[in-house]
TrEMBL record, chain A:
<feature type="transmembrane region" description="Helical">
    <location>
        <begin position="85"/>
        <end position="103"/>
    </location>
</feature>
<feature type="transmembrane region" description="Helical">
    <location>
        <begin position="47"/>
        <end position="65"/>
    </location>
</feature>
<protein>
    <submittedName>
        <fullName>Uncharacterized protein</fullName>
    </submittedName>
</protein>
<feature type="transmembrane region" description="Helical">
    <location>
        <begin position="115"/>
        <end position="134"/>
    </location>
</feature>
<keyword id="KW-0472">Membrane</keyword>
<feature type="transmembrane region" description="Helical">
    <location>
        <begin position="20"/>
        <end position="41"/>
    </location>
</feature>
<keyword id="KW-1133">Transmembrane helix</keyword>
<keyword id="KW-0812">Transmembrane</keyword>
UniProtKB/TrEMBL annotation, chain B:
<feature type="domain" description="HTH cro/C1-type">
    <location>
        <begin position="5"/>
        <end position="59"/>
    </location>
</feature>
<dbReference type="InterPro" id="IPR001387">
    <property type="entry name" value="Cro/C1-type_HTH"/>
</dbReference>
<dbReference type="Pfam" id="PF01381">
    <property type="entry name" value="HTH_3"/>
</dbReference>
<protein>
    <submittedName>
        <fullName>Helix-turn-helix transcriptional regulator</fullName>
    </submittedName>
</protein>
<dbReference type="InterPro" id="IPR010982">
    <property type="entry name" value="Lambda_DNA-bd_dom_sf"/>
</dbReference>
<keyword id="KW-0238">DNA-binding</keyword>
Amino acid sequence: MNKATVNNHDQRLKKGSRVLFFWTLLWMLSVAGLVFGPKLMWDFDHTATVITIVINLVLGIKMLLVNKQHLNDMDDMQQKIHYNAMAISLGCTMVLGIIYGSLKPAGLLEENPNPSNLLFVMGLSYLIAVFINFRKYL
Amino acid sequence: MKNRLKVLRAERDWTQADLANALDVSRQTINAIEKGKFDPSLPLAFKAARLFDMPIESIFDDGQEQ
């Protein structure tokens, strides 16, 4: 067996990561356009905003499909690690989301809860879970 | 689950990277399977059996008495 052979699986995964990064970047740019565009670029023109929403939606769907393909390209252990991380992330977001949502009615928060804060919880818990799971198998 | 991957690999003078490439998985996955930290799926176990030209039960042992 050729010991200098490059691992095809790793190469495929690296390429998948680059493709996922590209589409995620495009989606994030479209989110930025959606958030800042109406005020800073097209003075709340409804047509421009609707077009931006459609572009954002299309890019979001493409990003989801690329992410799904990336997960399919992973091997057994990598998939298990990421699926476990998704379960933990979903659970954390649900539990903390309900607590966060009840802060204002309970009088502990003056402002309305911002849903985008939950994305931060979701991303952070996912990253931590992936890190812990990877260490478990090393 | 116990397995003989490390022994079979050593008999053929293969590295973990060689075996990983032959089974189309990452080297970390081979390492985890060899250490018994991760049990491979049935398709991956069959793939290993075909690669070593041996029955699955000769490579993987779940420790259950028949």
